[in-house]
Amino acid sequence: MSLYQEQKKIKPKIEDVIPVCLDGDMQDIALDFVATLRSNKINPSWTLTNQWKSVCKGKNIFRLSLLPWTPPGKSQNAKWVVTAYLQHLDKYTDIVIAENLQSFLFDNVNYCVQKPSNSPPEAAFRQHSFAPPCNTWNCAPGKDIIICNQKLTNICANGNREYFWFHDPDKNTLNAIIRLLNLERTARLENK
Question: Of residues 121 and 153, which shows the higher confidence score?
Fold first, then answer.
């Protein structure tokens, strides 16, 4: 029986799998993060192998992946990734800027792997969700988006979603994610 089949059968709580996949400080940080999510009524439920998500108004608001798949050719293997789906970011941009959270967003977007090498940010500061020569949706070199009044160029157009991936986040990043998720949830609930 595959891990997927095992997990699908029992739909494990994330708190039961974190100790299997993470250790040391990373384990403690992840368990604290999940406890904070639950106390904020953002309850992760199993969705796929080593992946849990939470939904708000019928759409994903966040996903947590343990030992995520790494595309071929990608050198960095994350132990865990938190994905925030901030579909209503424009509704709370002023709060994000006032609370100085925008760098957490700028630093955690996924760029198109076809992004021109001479465009910012430097290649060392880019993260990609796919490996070259990705052009799955005939979308290269990505799309331009405005995040907190700053134009970001050549963002991955994977499924035409604007989302943010936080690889092996530290406590400060996780605190920012909790705040962003709460802002997103409020915006979704107020959006009629």
Answer: 153
- Residues 166, 110: Cα–Cα separation, whole Å: 10
Task: Indicate the Cα dihedral angle 72, 74, 75, 78, nearest 10°.
Answer: -100
pLDDT at 185: 95
Across 12-163, the runs of DSSP E, i.e. the strands, are 45-48, 51-56, 59-66, 80-84, 143-147, 150-155
Query: 3: closest CA among 67, 58, 78, 55?
Result: 67
Q: For residues 72 and 148, give the distance between their C-alpha atoms in angstroms, rounded to a whole number.
A: 32
Answer yes or no: is pLDDT of 39 > 50: yes
* Phi-psi category of residue 96: left, alpha or beta, with phi > 0 → left and psi -120 to 50 → alpha: alpha
- Is the pLDDT at 159 greater than 80? The verdict is no
Give the DSSP letter of residue 133.
Answer: T
What pLDDT, on the 0 to 100 scale, is given for residue 70? 56
Q: Which of left, alpha, beta for 76 (phi over 0: left; psi -120 to 50: alpha)?
A: beta
- For the segment 55-70, the average pLDDT, to the nearest whole number, is 86
Q: How many residues does the chain have?
A: 192
Nearest to 172 by CA among 85, 108, 93: 108
